[in-house]
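Sequence in, structure out.
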Amino acid sequence: MVSSLGQIAPFALGTPHSAAMPLQAFLTGLDQLAQAGQSAFSQSADAAALEAARVEFLGAKSGRLKAAQKGLGTVPGPDKPAAGKRFNEVKMLLEAALTEAQERLRGTDSAESAEPFDPTLPGGREFKEGRHPVAPGHLHPLTQTIEELKDIMGRLGFTVADGPEVEDEWHNFEALNIPKSHPARDPLENFYLATAGVGNAGPMLLRSQTSTVQIRVMEKQPPPVRIISLGRVYRPDDADATHYPMFHQIEGLLVDRNVTMADLKSVLRLFAASFLGHDVHIRFRPSFFPFTEPSVEVDMAWETIGGKTRYVEMGGAGMVDPNVLRAVGYDPEEVTGFAFGLGVERVCARRHGVADIREFYRNDVRFLSQF
């Protein structure tokens, strides 16, 4: 009998086994049988080839393993335990190889029968059958607001700048004229990190304002400067209708010759009218920020009840403090500038009539699908 490998097959049925077979010859034949069977199973390209190999090696009537079992009877008595042990090992090897080949072919068949995956199509059988169309998604309302604010400020001549959310104390405080004694630097008022910065950066924290981007831009760019930065900032505030420990700011900066407070008010009025409508009212209230002088709180009319208008603080603004200009190498005798920072959540809520900014973070599809 010729095996699938082209060699004379050991233990072929019909071969006389009346003569005693030495143990070593029997073990060599088993090794050849195991190698040939494993190779035949692994090389089977389809179910028909695998079935033919199964019949050849593990067939109950004419299989080569069956012939080897009969040859076991011709091994001398003292050597039968060793011969039987090896026979059982070869039997398990062949059965395991057959199982592995069957699983391999099943995986191949299922992969070939499956429809090609097209990631550009809407998902779900229900969609294909027209029973439950999959609703397309859209940008989060805060992301929509950020993109629109970029567009509005771009039309006013401001370019977008970005910066890291993990900052050092120089950019977050010192260059912004915030001394170590200022309450804003209290560890309980910031999210400090357990690791220090690279080199001499010192303690690191999550930025508490996007004003840090202003410093980074002015350090690299001589005046004139006209930028906005939008991004996340972090403060350990208690969450309520108008506060959240993580929120978004839009920060504006204009530094040039002869910039005045009137320019600041004009830009903010144009911004508010473009985003909220021409009937919106804004007001300035005197305030104090270390990085602006003079400083104002920017309030916008929220609602009118009983003839009284309720204003909500949207952020802070003012003329850039001369100490900030000096910190980045600008000459305050040559240039002046204004800066403002507004909460994106509050601006978005004002436009859409949302009473609680926490709604933006609850991930309620019923709420978000309205935008």
